[in-house]
Amino acid sequence: MHVLASTPLSPEYWLGLFGAFAAIGVLAIIFAETGLLFGCILPGDSLLFTAGILTAVSELNGVEFQQISLPVLLIGGPIAAIVGAQLGHWLGAKYGRKLFDRPDSKIFRKEWVEKAEYYFNRFGPEKAVVIARFVPIVRTFLNPLAGMLGMDAKRFFVWNAIGAVIWCDSLFLLGHYLGASVPNIDRYILPGVAVILVLSVIPIVREVMKGRSETKGLGQ
C-alpha cells in the first residue's frame, strides 16, 4: 500500500497515485504539461527525475512503489512531450491571443505568457523551443505562443523533437544511474532537481546578460 505524499506538487504523490500504471501516468503528465495550459501546475523535472530513479529502485523514503521500465520511459517520454507540444502549437495557431484571453487564476497568469514571449523573442524560435523544455511554466506556454506567433508547424516539430529527447531522456537517465549507484537516493531528489534547474538556467542567464551588455553598448 502506498503512502501518498501530502501535496500534489510532489512527484511521489503522483507515482503512488498511479500505482501499477506509473509509467502511463508519467507519460500522461508529460503530455499535459507540454500541451495543455493547466499542465503548468503539474510536476515536471522532479517527476521525470524521480521516475528515472524508480527504474532502478522500488522504494523511496521507506515506501514501496511500482518499479518502472526504463525503455518505456526513454521511448514514450519524448513521444508524449512531442505530441503534447505539437497540440499546444496547434491550439496557439488556431485560437491566437483568444487562447490567453482569460483572468488570472491559480493555473493561469498573464505574466507567464509574457515570460514565454520574452524567451521566444530573446533567443529566437528554434533555440527558445529547446531551452523552454528546461524552464517550468515556460515549457507549457511557449508551445501555443509559437503557434500564435506564426512559427511553421514543420519547423516547430524538428526543434520540438530535439528538445523533447534531450529533456526527457537526460532526466530519466540521470535518475536511473543515480538510483542504481547512490544509496538512499531519495534523500537527494530535491537537491538533484535544484542542481538540474541551476545548470539549465546558467546558459539562459548568460544570454540575457550578453543581450543587456550589447544593448548598453549600442546606447553609448
How does this structure look, described?
With 220 residues, the chain is mostly helical. Helix content is 68%, strand content 2%. It is built from nine helices and two strands. The protein has helices at residues 11-18, 22-35, 45-53, 70-95, 110-123, 125-132, 138-148, 153-181, 189-219; strands at 59-60, 63-64. A two-stranded antiparallel sheet has the order 1-2. A hairpin with a 2-residue loop joins strand 1 and strand 2. It is elongated. The termini are far apart. Its main location: membrane.
Brief description of this entry?
This protein is mostly helical and 220 residues long. The chain is built from nine helices and two strands, in the order H-H-H-E-E-H-H-H-H-H-H. The protein is 68% helix and 2% strand.
Major sheet: 2 strands, antiparallel
Shape designation? elongated
Which ranges are low-confidence, i.e. pLDDT below 50, for 5 or more consecutive residues? 1-6
Number of helices: 9
Radius of gyration: 18 Å
Tell me the distance between the termini: 66 Å
Order of helices and strands: HHHEEHHHHHH
Which range best describes the helical content: under 10%, 10-25%, 25-40%, 40-55%, 55-70% or over 70%? 55-70%
Subcellular location: Cell membrane
Transmembrane segments: 13-31, 36-56, 68-92, 156-176, 188-205
Domain VTT: 42-175
Keywords: Cell membrane, Membrane, Transmembrane, Transmembrane helix
